């Protein structure tokens, strides 16, 4: 595996140009001051209640609620790099939305033989209930979180790759916003010295996007955020975004369907709901159509949705495009629907359901990252170089038993960014999740959520696996 690309240092003696002002400032900060700032940040985050629920976490003294560790050293991206990434994100999300529409309508990409039909029709995320259903603006994923990593090239430069597409209920944007507020509070002088592109207007863009996909003929749409409730791992974010947009946070029991329309119960009486930003999976939305035992959704919701009387963001069935077994086909989608070459590349991927790919993977398990196609949060995966022989052999048995459930990728050494850890400032691996909004237009705030693997050498950045977050600075020209 090649050495990691260092975001801040070109080599041991040279700091990259876009980090030089920050580097001079950092060199003047006493360690005890930085430590005190970190403790202050933790105290404020805890007071505000910015926590992440970890299911089944029996060993933590904090029960199931944890603070996501916040790192004081920002990840900095120069303006030119961001412009190119933004173009690639627009292109990718546009093609993915075209693909989802096609899957539930003409299925032209299947007829063209670019994706095997069984990859769609037998996929757990395919919702036959959505066949022929028209949605506003033919948009399915209004909020997408695209995970991007940077790996080193042989010449020492770095290239960005899309690691995965999160198109169902991507989370983390509240941490992006709170991290920026925290940095501005702790280090206001840094924002005088750097032209950092703002992100605080994200809730305004989100509300604008949601209103723009309301059912036809609705001039002043009522938007709500639908949460599974306070025990969900991302409940803080649900409440935060509702509050920031100035809309109601509702649970399934607050909604009902009458005459094909959705209403919420309020102290002033029933109020029609036009757009639901739902933060729960398809299976729990409507007990009449999906899981009969679900108490989290609203009976009759799908009927109102198919009648065109309410918009769900994101649409039912969107998961077909963020399944890891579909990910390898996204470059073909971009060419098929847009007639363009991909701006952002995929990580090379082996499909374990393909006999030759499976043979290669089984022969090289110790070198690869193997993931469940429906897995999330860093679970259900094998990081070959970090695994024991016993773990590799155990995973081999799963792979042989059910190969179509897995994909494999080379172990990319994610780029590193200086991080303030107990031993001082040290490099830690990072990724980036920009949030792409698709409505009347495709929009995003500059940057996104940078996640950092706080354990030395670890490549797993997920919050549920002990990862932390950083503020992401896109520098303006």
UniProtKB/TrEMBL annotation:
InterPro entries: ATP-dep_Glu-Cys_Ligase-2, CP_ATPgrasp_2, UCP005522. Gene3D superfamilies: 3.30.1490.270, 3.40.50.11290. Pfam families: CP_ATPgrasp_2. Residues 74-453 form the Circularly permuted ATP-grasp type domain. This is Circularly permuted type 2 ATP-grasp protein. It comes from Ideonella dechloratans. The lineage of its organism: Bacteria, Pseudomonadati, Pseudomonadota, Betaproteobacteria, Burkholderiales.
